[in-house]
Amino acid sequence: MKYSDLSSYHFFQKMIKIKEFKDIDKKDTVFIKKYLNKNDILLDIGCGWGRELLSLHSCCKKIIGIDYDKIEISVAKDFLKSIKNIQLILSDARNLKIDTNSISKAICLFNTLGNNIEHLNIILKEIYRVLNNDGIFMGVFYKKIKNKKRFNCYLDAGLEPDYIKNDNLYFKDGFYSKGFIKSEIINYFKKANFKTIVIKNLTDISYFVVAYKK
Ligand SMILES: C[S@@+](CC[C@H](N)C(=O)[O-])C[C@H]1O[C@@H](n2cnc3c(N)ncnc32)[C@H](O)[C@@H]1O
Fold first, then answer.
1. Angle between helices 19-33 and 147-156 (to 10 degrees)
2. What range does the domain containing 153 cover?
3. If exposure means fewest CB atoms within 10 Å of the residue's CB, which of 36, 77, 119, 174 is most exposed?
């Protein structure tokens, strides 16, 4: 099965059968909740079908989900239609349709930034722009040292990984996701002007990154 044949929901339904991915789904919510409060305006970048919007909407004042894929946004709108404090916007992370300084917490999960390496500097600057002065970004990044293991996890999930090159794991349709080392992540965030970057172990194959605007 190629990634491009699947919506994020269907890709997720396959991945979630595998322990390594299930662990991320369980733990990212728990980690994020530690940083949230009821007054937060939370932005989910690359929200897909709305997995995390559903888990977190009751922990903050408002959640805005953005995704550049029309189908993802319409699936999320349908899935989350009964929840009042969720707003969904069709938008590319490179050019967020969000006001400057208007967001208190931003998240980007399941290594979505690792699918955007060519644009990562621009995207992080956009995240920095929309966060308010006390704003915090939280993200999940795959570990480079576990690329091989992750390759086998996709195989076990019935997906079609193809090869690993230059830290990127490629699927047969050319879709890729990068595995990171900690110093790279720190450098990317520093370049975008974030002041403090904390990297924790989330699971065997993933890091949880917290980046503070000030
Ligand atoms: C790996 S899925 C993650 C979905 C969701 N965040 C989750 O954790 O379950 C990545 C999602 O990000 C979206 N995406 C990838 N690059 C994007 C970009 N540059 N701007 C907006 N959305 C993007 C994709 O369309 C897809 O829905």
1. 110
2. 3-212
3. 174
Q: pLDDT exceeding 90 applies to what percent of the chain? A: 93
Q: Which atom of ligand 1 is nearest to the CA of 109?
A: 8
Does 68 contact ligand 1 (Cβ within 6 A)? yes
Quick check: CB of 72 below 6 Å from ligand 1? yes
pLDDT one-digit tens code per residue, 110-134? 999 999 999 999 999 999 999 999 9
191 CA to middle of ligand 1, Å?
22
Which residue, by CA, sits nearest to atom 19 of ligand 1? 93
Q: What is the CATH number of the domain that holds 123?
A: 3.40.50.150
Is the whole model's pTM more than 0.70, yes or no?
yes
Domain count, the chain: 1
